Amino acid sequence: MIEVQSLTQQFGETTAVDTVSLTINDGEFVLITGPNGSGKTTLVRHFNGLRTPTSGTVQVNAMPVSEDVVAARTAVGMVFQHPQDGFVAATIGADVAFGPENLGLSHDEINRRVTNALAAVNLSDREPDRIDSLSGGEMARVGIAGALAMEPDHLVLDEPFTGLDEPARQSVLEHLKTLSERGTSVIVVTHDLRDLIDCCDRVIAMNAGAVAIDCPSTDARDALSDAAVYVPPVSEPEGESEPESL
Ligand SMILES: Nc1ncnc2c1ncn2[C@@H]1O[C@H](COP(=O)(O)OP(=O)(O)OP(=O)(O)O)[C@@H](O)[C@H]1O
């Protein structure tokens, strides 16, 4: 469980996160949406201690993040945009294996995790390929695979679908649904609600650092439409979405 209590993050005059309290239960699939600059990324960076709160607390699995950042980083996997900044190895296979290797797992277990993670992002059998030969979308998929291979209790993905083609998007989405059904909390920060809204359990919309909407996914279309957030229909082709506003 991730519990956020009265979390505030100030950057100079800017209040990026404003007194946010929320709980994310094990196995919940949560979308966090909202306009640019509404505080989504700053909020989720607190889930594994990448930021220090101005005030308030975050607890992961009942342990304050500030008291055990290592435990929080083990429990909460993060996938950010620009994964190339975090690559540590020359090939896809070596990079995805790097995290599990550091957990001291057996060779067979590492292989199992790498194989599953690469299958989830449609990169099966690409272990030997050099990272520096990949396209942007392929790099994004390797970044996701690296986090999946860690099999964290909670998985946070910030705009994970940017640059992914539709088969890769569907494959990752299916994998995230399965993870959540098996008890992993999945938290996706996105502007691209499309079919995600029908796959998740809950939608949180932020505005000006605060939680503006927090509702079950079944109520989300009405709630977001009342708040003037544009939700494209499921069948709408890519590229025809209008920007959302809140
Ligand atoms: N390191 C920082 N230093 C100063 N201001 C920051 C920093 N990080 C974020 N901010 C500010 O905090 C506010 C919230 O930013 P944040 O990136 O959390 O929003 P977001 O909802 O994730 O936006 P986007 O949809 O554009 O990714 C913005 O006004 C941003 O400029």
What's the layout of helices and strands?
Elements: E1 2-11, E2 14-24, E3 29-33, H1 40-45, E4 55-60, E5 63-64, H2 69-75, E6 76-79, H3 92-102, H4 107-120, H5 136-149, E7 154-158, H6 166-181, E8 185-189, H7 196-199, E9 202-207, E10 210-216, H8 217-226
Parallel strand pairs: 3-8, 3-9, 6-7, 7-8
Antiparallel strand pairs: 1-2, 1-4, 4-5, 9-10
Bound molecules: adenosine-5'-triphosphate.
Adenosine-5'-triphosphate binds at residues 11, 14, 16, 34, 36-42.
Function: Probably part of an ABC transporter complex. Responsible for energy coupling to the transport system.
Pfam family, one: ABC_tran
Domain ABC transporter: 2-233
Description:
- The structure is a single chain.
- By secondary structure, the chain is α/β, with parallel strands linked by helices.
- The protein has 8 helices and 10 strands.
- The chain has helices spanning 40-45, 69-75, 92-102, 107-120, 136-149, 166-181, 196-199, 217-226, and strands at residues 2-11, 14-24, 29-33, 55-60, 63-64, 76-79, 154-158, 185-189, 202-207, 210-216.
- Strands 6-7-8-3-9-10 form a 6-stranded mixed beta sheet. A 4-stranded antiparallel beta sheet has the order 2-1-4-5.
- α6 (166-181) links the parallel β7 and β8 (185-189).
- α4 packs across α5.
- Residues 233-245 have low confidence and may be disordered.
- The site of adenosine-5'-triphosphate has 11 residues, from β2 and α1.
- Residues 2-233 form the ABC transporter domain.
- It comes from Natronocalculus amylovorans.
- Keywords: ATP-binding, Membrane, Nucleotide-binding, Transport.
